[in-house]
Amino acid sequence: MTTLKIGIADTEEMKARTLRIARGEEKPSADDPKVWFISTESFSKVLSASNRDMLRLIAENEPDSLDALAELTGRAKSNLSRTLKAMTSYGLVRMERSGKKLAPKLIHDRVVLELALTSSRRKPSRPKETAHE
Description:
The chain is α/β, with parallel strands linked by helices. 40% of the residues lie in helices and 22% in strands. α1 (11-22) links the parallel β1 and β2 (35-37). The chain is elongated. The N and C termini lie far apart (63 Å).
């Protein structure tokens, strides 16, 4: 399996970063997060303790359908469907079709969170002072 690098940035930060990249002022690094959440709260909801347990069950038991996953977790199929849809959008799982059934598959077995505690916005650079002769 692989590690998914996740970052936290609000909408304004992501918009500013995207514009800096488009203007050539910033170059994305291969080490940058691949998935972004808009808040630590949204991150914690998607990767709550019960959802991490569900991901572990998917990895260990490889359920062949949502019904099988519902039985393993004791959660309602509708609840699982919503949760898996969110996890799919963040690249944590994928849903594979087998006949008429959809089976969840874990994509990454580890998540690394990058969280800046100070503003990541760059300060405008000052023009360099030159000595006059």
